[in-house]
Amino acid sequence: MPYYAKSEDWLHQSALLLQARPTTTRITTRYHLKPARRVRKARARKQTDDTTSQPPSQDQQQQAQEQQIPDKPPRGHLVLKTFDPASGVTLKYKTSKAAEVSRLVQMLGTLGRRMAGVPDLPAPSIVTLAAEEGVGAGAGAVEGGDGEAGGVGMSRSASGVGTPTPGGSGAGAGQQAAAAGGGGGGGGKGKKKKGKR
Amino acid sequence: MGVLTHDEFFARLADIFTGPKTKGHGAIFLTQKRLTYGQDQPQQQQQPPSSSPDQPSPDQPPPPAGSFPDLAPPTQPYPILIRATNGKGKTARDRKVKLSTVVQPDEIEAFFARYAEVCKSGMAALKPRDRTKRKAKAKKKKAGGA
């Protein structure tokens, strides 16, 4: 009863199973929450709380920060399972990443088409979805691209300055400017993220 | 619980998703399978046992429709049955919620698009995308460039 490391593997194997047993195979998606507990840490903290009765020090502040950790919301997990009762084959995939959900449901859709016996759409459906999911990353890339463009402009101006001195020094100036441009690009990315939040 | 329409199904599915969210634990099961019951197509016809092997080998063409009726391309596509429960068993039978809906073949695209939306909003306890690494990288780059 294997868990697949990649959702693509799970999709592929499930598609094969569905091809072999189209009427009996079922796909179950299980979403469950587990309370995020850290029992050992909690116990240790309790003991220190009982023993220490000093005015608030750095240690206690740290403890207070640690105390907030177990309060964090429970973590969800998502398990996809393809099961065929006729042959007993079970294929599983497990994840806890929110970014994967829409891609996985898309996979359920493609497998659903196979279940229904509808001919597959050409592959790009998944590709487009991956592109959609990468919108955040794409925005970052665009931002980085802007930074690079700025860097290029700067390096051009630097090379213009450097033209009177032919040879290695001019090239060095250009390299420096390029490095500065790269830094600018990075800064731009950081700014973008701050703006999002 | 009879079969629900898509709108009703999604509305109640969203309700189910709030259960574990508020309590901090619990599970939701979503199942999909081909709906063959009550369809007009001939299903498991009793055929004399054929001598062909159980699994068709990949390079051979699929066996004739007579030996494995469900492997033959269906004369018309089947609907899909979608089920959802909140995973309550025996001890909490009275709080068990079971939903089901049928998706016709031509509705699959639209249904799964909405399904993805509902799932995404319902599965809020999953890990959000981790941006700390990229942030640290950007910082490093910034420090290096300046």
UniProtKB/TrEMBL annotation, chain A:
<dbReference type="InterPro" id="IPR039432">
    <property type="entry name" value="SRP9_dom"/>
</dbReference>
<feature type="compositionally biased region" description="Gly residues">
    <location>
        <begin position="140"/>
        <end position="153"/>
    </location>
</feature>
<feature type="region of interest" description="Disordered">
    <location>
        <begin position="29"/>
        <end position="77"/>
    </location>
</feature>
<feature type="region of interest" description="Disordered">
    <location>
        <begin position="140"/>
        <end position="197"/>
    </location>
</feature>
<feature type="compositionally biased region" description="Basic residues">
    <location>
        <begin position="29"/>
        <end position="45"/>
    </location>
</feature>
<feature type="domain" description="SRP9">
    <location>
        <begin position="6"/>
        <end position="115"/>
    </location>
</feature>
<feature type="compositionally biased region" description="Low complexity">
    <location>
        <begin position="50"/>
        <end position="68"/>
    </location>
</feature>
<protein>
    <recommendedName>
        <fullName>SRP9 domain-containing protein</fullName>
    </recommendedName>
</protein>
<dbReference type="InterPro" id="IPR039914">
    <property type="entry name" value="SRP9-like"/>
</dbReference>
<dbReference type="Pfam" id="PF05486">
    <property type="entry name" value="SRP9-21"/>
</dbReference>
TrEMBL record, chain B:
<feature type="region of interest" description="Disordered">
    <location>
        <begin position="32"/>
        <end position="96"/>
    </location>
</feature>
<feature type="compositionally biased region" description="Pro residues">
    <location>
        <begin position="55"/>
        <end position="77"/>
    </location>
</feature>
<comment type="subunit">
    <text>Component of a fungal signal recognition particle (SRP) complex that consists of a 7SL RNA molecule (scR1) and at least six protein subunits: SRP72, SRP68, SRP54, SEC65, SRP21 and SRP14.</text>
</comment>
<feature type="compositionally biased region" description="Basic residues">
    <location>
        <begin position="130"/>
        <end position="146"/>
    </location>
</feature>
<comment type="similarity">
    <text>Belongs to the SRP14 family.</text>
</comment>
<dbReference type="InterPro" id="IPR003210">
    <property type="entry name" value="Signal_recog_particle_SRP14"/>
</dbReference>
<keyword id="KW-0694">RNA-binding</keyword>
<comment type="function">
    <text>Component of the signal recognition particle (SRP) complex, a ribonucleoprotein complex that mediates the cotranslational targeting of secretory and membrane proteins to the endoplasmic reticulum (ER).</text>
</comment>
<feature type="compositionally biased region" description="Low complexity">
    <location>
        <begin position="39"/>
        <end position="54"/>
    </location>
</feature>
<keyword id="KW-0687">Ribonucleoprotein</keyword>
<dbReference type="Pfam" id="PF02290">
    <property type="entry name" value="SRP14"/>
</dbReference>
<keyword id="KW-0963">Cytoplasm</keyword>
<feature type="region of interest" description="Disordered">
    <location>
        <begin position="126"/>
        <end position="146"/>
    </location>
</feature>
<keyword id="KW-0733">Signal recognition particle</keyword>
<protein>
    <recommendedName>
        <fullName>Signal recognition particle subunit SRP14</fullName>
    </recommendedName>
</protein>
<dbReference type="InterPro" id="IPR009018">
    <property type="entry name" value="Signal_recog_particle_SRP9/14"/>
</dbReference>
